Amino acid sequence: MSAFTVSSLAALATVVVAAGVLRSRIYAVFAAVILGLHTVVSVGLFPLVQGLGPVLWWAQAAVFVQYGMLIFPRLRPVIYRGLITVPGLWFAAGTLLALPWSVAATLGYTPVGVWIPFLAAAIGVWQSSTTVREVVDLRLDRDPVDGLRRVQKQTGTGERPLRLVQITDPHLGPFMSVSRLRDIAQRAVEQDPDLVLLTGDFYTMEGKGTPGALSQALAPLQAMEGRVFACMGNHDHEAPDQVAAELAAVGVRLLIDQAQVVQTGAGPVQVVGLDHVWRDRAARHGATLAAWPRQPGAFRLVLLHDPGAFKHLPEGEADLALSGHTHGGHVGLVSLGLAWTSVNALTGLPDHGLWGHGTNRMYVHKGTGHYGFPLRVGVPAEESVLRVWGPAT
After folding, report:
1. H or E segment at 135?
2. Exposed (0-12), middle (13-18) or buried (19+): which is 353, by Cβ within 10 Å?
3. 3 state SS of 215
4. What class has domain 131-389?
C-alpha cells in the first residue's frame, strides 16, 4: 500500500471522527460520504498522476483541510482561500470528474487523457469565481404548453418592458465573498431596474458561521428600499432567523407565503413569495396563491426558489415565476452554446432559461453563486437584467 493511500485513509478517518466529536453526526456522515468517494477515486488515480509530486500531495492535503475546517464554519480570509480552498476544491472536482479514469486504472488499464478532467476543473475554478453579465429579453404569452418543457425566448418590441434583476443562490462561502456579492449588489442598483428579486440560498455552511456577512454584502440594496423582495431557499431554513434579520437590516422585504403589490414604470406588479417546502407542495402553494388572489391589471410575479415546484402551481397563477436552486445545471455544456446539463439529465428538473407549464411561465436563473458539487463546470454564473414583456405589463 502506497504512502499516498495510507495518508489519505488516515486523513479521512481523522476528519470524520473529529466531525462527529466536535460538530455533529450529520456533518460526520456528510464528510464520510464526500471524502470517502474522493479517497477511493484519488487512490485509484494515483498511479496515473504520481508524477505531479509535491503538487499532488499539496492538493490532496488541501481537500482534507478544507472539509476538516468546516467543523468550525465561518468565512475564511483571502490567503486561506488561495492556499487551501481553491486548490482543494479544484482537486476534489477534478478527481470526481476523473472517476472513469480511476476505474480503468484500478482494472489494470492505462487510460490516456487523465489531464482532461483536471483541465475542466481548472476552467470550473474560473467559472465559479466570475459571473457573465447579460441582458435577457423575455416576451411572455399565455399559449398553453403541454406538460413541463423549455420554451423559446422571444425578443419583445414596442411597449416599455418590466426590468428585473434577480440574485439567487449567492451561497456566501468559498467562491462568494462579502466583497464579491457587494459588488454584484452595487451593479444591480446601478442598472436602476424596476425591481430586484432575491430567490434564496444566501448562506452556506461557512457563511452562516459569520453573522452579519449577508447584510454587509447586500448593503447597496438599501438604495432601492421598497423595490427589493426576497423568498426563502432550502438552505435559508438552516438559519431562518439570521437570514430574516439580515435581509430586514438592509430594507429587503422577505415574503414568506405572502404577497405585495408595487407600482413600477411598467405598471403594477403583484409579487408573491412562496416559502420553500419539500412536502405537499401542490396543497401548500395552492393555498397561498388562493389566499393572495390576482389583483386586476397587475403582473403576477411569483418568487419560487426551487423550480421543481413550478409544475405544482395552479393553472394561470404565474405570469412569470423566478427560480434558482439548480445553479443553471451546475455541470454541463452551456458554455458551448448547448442546453444540456447534468442536473436536467439526471433529475429532469428545469435547469436554466424559460420554461412553461400550461399558461404559467418560469425563468430559471443560472445562479449568482453555487454550492454542492465543488465547482461549476461548463455552466457560468449569471448576472443579468431581465427585460420582460407580457400580457399584463
Report:
1. strand 131-139
2. buried
3. helix
4. alpha beta
